[in-house]
Amino acid sequence: MTTIHPVPARRDHIEGRNLRPMPMWPAEMMPRPIASNRNAVWYAGEDITTCVYESDDGSVAFTDLPYDEHVHILSGTAILTSTDGRVDTYGPGDWFLAPKGWSGTWEMTGGYRELIVFHTASLLAAAETWGIDG
User: Fold this and answer.
1) Which of 85, 126, 129, 130 stands the most exposed, by the fewest C-beta atoms within 10 Å?
2) Could you tell me the domains of the chain?
3) What parts of the chain have a pLDDT lower than 50?
4) Collapsing DSSP states into helix, strand and coil, what is residue 95?
5) Contacts with 102 (C-beta within 8 Å, 6 or more apart), sequence order
């Protein structure tokens, strides 16, 4: 029988080192194009997946976000503008949840990096739909 242990986040990933380039968001989802983005998945389980995501400045538009996304901003700024015009701004140390079904624009600036937690099956299905499951 295998013993199960806690899985710590890697300090180098939290600090933005050793992140791997990842496939880009579809062009039609980027009102302000992002030059590149990177990530490191540090846990992928049956129910949840956690990763560090880093992005150059730009924005992604979501219509009916297909998963709940729990976010901790590590650096930079996230400006979420909902379709009804509400603007929420988050910076280093802030935590927030982008709920399933949310629609709006997610702007990332200033060396943006976040620690995120998703429902695994919902994340995988969305990534496949968007063509970023590589």
Assistant:
1) 85
2) 39-130 (2.60.120.10)
3) none
4) strand
5) 62, 64, 65, 82
